[in-house]
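Running co-folding for NDP.
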Amino acid sequence: MADRYAVVGNPVAHSKSPDIHAMFARETGEDLVYERLLAPLDRFVETVQAFRRAGGRGCNVTVPFKGEAFRFAGEHSERARVAEAVNVLRFDGDRVFGDNSDGVGLLRDIEHNLGVPLRGRRVLLLGAGGAAQGVLGPLLSAGPARVAIGNRTLEKAERLAARFRQAGAAAGPCARSFEALAGEAFDVVVNATSASLDDAELALPAGLFAPGALAYDMMYGKGMTPFLRAARTEGAALLADGLGMLVEQAAESFLVWRGVRPDTANVLASLRAS
Ligand code: NDP
């Protein structure tokens, strides 16, 4: 019987992860099936445990359970430990290993697929939830001139920034409410809020996009989100959705589970074409 994997989230119906992993499995010859699991908001652990009992070998974890997945895992990779958020679980017998592939996925998409180096750039990360936590460490390690975290709830951004300042990161991040970003400009603005899931607009001040800026929405499959529309109006030169990040983090998850990293270029091109 093929090994079983799944993506667990709420909502999860929009997830393209099953298509991506089916393509990876064909490409690499690995024998696996991958499904979507909708977990009730108060039953993440029960949902994952039921999947494990039914023979599940691992899962991806998406909004809003990455913090819970971190607490659920008994062992962590270094990058998951730093992020305190987990988007990859691997079940090794009685043990549960948690990893975080979001950061490496985002970096690879921005720097390799989109050709935008982050070294020396001013980066604004919008959001302070599981996705932002996962990508902040890798973003800082890419050597940007500065990283600001903007969040609707300022205290969450402050807590996240403080954690990474304590971790001794070279360019320590600063925390801002959306209003307090007025007057600042950035070369790369990453939307890691879940606002685009509900087609909600972010109450951002004007003038955030420096000439030539990249606007990156981690959301995918929604076309021009309110964030990307606003970025275009504001003069951002390059607009990107999160499909590339999704494919890259999926390849990294596949590596954690199967020990082989699939090639992503064809999968990304085929998803874009469809
Ligand atoms: P969480 O629920 O953990 O965090 C949500 C964040 O969004 C919080 O910072 C919250 O702010 C903010 N937010 C939500 N609604 C609004 C709004 N209307 N206005 C302003 N801020 C808002 O979610 P995740 O961090 O796990 O996921 C965030 C997004 O990233 C999701 O859309 C997810 O699909 C996407 N994602 C994409 C990936 C990819 O591979 N492309 C990978 C990972 C995530 P507050 O603190 O004030 O509540």
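Result summary
Residues 3-100 form a domain with the Rossmann fold fold (CATH 3.40.50.10860).
The pocket of NDP is lined by residues 63-64, 66, 102, 105, 127-132, 151-153, 156, 192-197, 200, 202, 218-220, 242, 245-246, 249 (CB under 6 Å).
Job closed.
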